[in-house]
């Protein structure tokens, strides 16, 4: 990422920002973990090991471990929706867990998750280790998917999910302190590209998978969105940048 990202952001089709251009040295990407897994999420633990989770079949949350992001051991099942479910049991389909994300915040591990029919929840490790046991902190939202956590430098924690919705959490992490709001963005302009879909009045970062990151006092909101680009259907990652949360 260049240092003038905000003033001169890249367009997905420019040669220096795209991953779709021809490259003579390109090689095929080989899987490091050959298992049926979607919505992969990775975090670094306080022990400097990497931990990975994602959507698998059924209602289990499984975690893999690595020291180098190449060789992975596991999985270790740390939570089961069918056995440990509380608020989820009143839902239409308690077997539909999706998009778990693993985070480290406030000195322990947390796993955010969603239900396929809608609704998001949070798990807390009671042992401060990735293996748990995990306490279900309850339902965070009655709608949405792709739940994520963001801890700011002042210690405040935010619930982020769906198409860029965000809400500050209570100090004890048992729920939201405020109603979620959707992050509204101002599309950047590139001369000659006024016909791009991002200029049509759509104020959301993307359609799903919202994730918030902070670096050098700037906040970066990432979202995925289907987009017809370069004559084909694609799912692209869009980024919005702000100096304030």
TrEMBL record:
Keyword field: Glycosidase, Hydrolase
Record-linked SUPFAM superfamilies: Arabinanase/levansucrase/invertase (SSF75005)
Pfam families referenced in this protein's UniProt entry, alphabetically: Glyco_hydro_43 (PF04616)
Highest taxon listed in the record's lineage: Bacteria
Family the UniProt entry places it in: Belongs to the glycosyl hydrolase 43 family.
Protein's UniProt name: Family 43 glycosylhydrolase
Organism, scientific name: Paenibacillus aestuarii
């Amino acid at each position: 990422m260049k240092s003038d990202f905000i003033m001169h952001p890249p367009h997905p089709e420019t040669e220096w920002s795209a991953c779709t251009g021809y490259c003579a040295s390109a090689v095929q990407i080989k899987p490091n973990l050959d298992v049926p897994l979607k919505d992969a999420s990775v975090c670094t633990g306080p022990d400097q090991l990497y931990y990975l989770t994602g959507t698998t079949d059924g209602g289990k949350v499984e975690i893999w471990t690595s020291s180098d992001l190449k060789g992975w051991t596991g999985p270790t099942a740390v939570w089961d929706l069918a056995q440990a479910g509380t608020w989820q049991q009143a839902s239409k389909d308690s077997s539909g867990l999706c998009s778990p994300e693993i985070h480290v915040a406030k000195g322990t591990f947390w796993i955010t998750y969603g239900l396929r029919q809608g609704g998001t929840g949070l798990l807390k490790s009671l042992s401060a280790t990735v293996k748990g046991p995990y306490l279900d902190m309850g339902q965070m939202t009655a709608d949405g998917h792709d739940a994520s956590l963001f801890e700011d430098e002042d210690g405040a924690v935010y619930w982020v999910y769906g198409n860029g919705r965000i809400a500050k959490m209570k100090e004890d992490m048992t729920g939201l302190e405020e109603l979620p709001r959707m992050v509204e963005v101002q599309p950047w302009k590139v001369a000659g590209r006024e016909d791009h879909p991002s200029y049509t009045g759509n104020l959301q970062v993307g359609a799903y998978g919202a994730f918030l990151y902070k670096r050098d006092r700037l906040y970066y909101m990432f979202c995925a969105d289907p987009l017809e680009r370069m004559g084909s259907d694609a799912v692209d990652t869009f980024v919005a940048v702000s100096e304030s949360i």
